[in-house]
Amino acid sequence: MKITVDPQHFEALELRVLEEVVESVIDVLEKAGVRDAALAEAAASISFSVAAIIDGSRVMELDGEPVLPFLTFARGPDESELVASRGGSGMHEYVHGIVEDMLGQNGLQATIVDRGRGEVPPKSLGSGCF
To answer: Hey, where are the domains in the chain?
Structure first.
């Protein structure tokens, strides 16, 4: 298996995964009746926690040994190549910006029924990220 360090492509891929995580969390919270600012706050908190686990920012152990995930992405027709970033993922750092992009500041656009395909298109992924 070949490992290719490609920070720009890796970042695009990790942001796409994170966008899907955030959208899934928002959908579940909306179905549970969470709305407006509470929706934005809960979505950001839950998504941040999930992203920190995936990107290895959260301290974890198994049998006294550290557990450190290292995110990579398969590429190629036979998936024999892995796309990586030297420093691993830092997707948790983008959560608040993506939530804001999807819901608007303070969750005021939280009535979007079908993000990316509905009445109000999401902003670009990078606009609210830090």
So the answer is: 2-107
d(CA 15, CA 95): 9
Per-residue pLDDT tens for 19-75?
999 999 999 999 999 999 999 999 999 999 999 999 999 999 999 999 999 999 999
d(CA 25, CA 66): 27
Q: Give CA separation, 72 vs 50, 67, 79, 84, 129, in Å.
A: 17, 16, 12, 5, 21
Amino acid 22 reads V
pTM check: above 0.85: no
DSSP category for residue 93: G
pLDDT for res 105: 65
The backbone torsions φ and ψ at residue 109, rounded to the nearest 5 degrees and listed phi first, read -100, 25
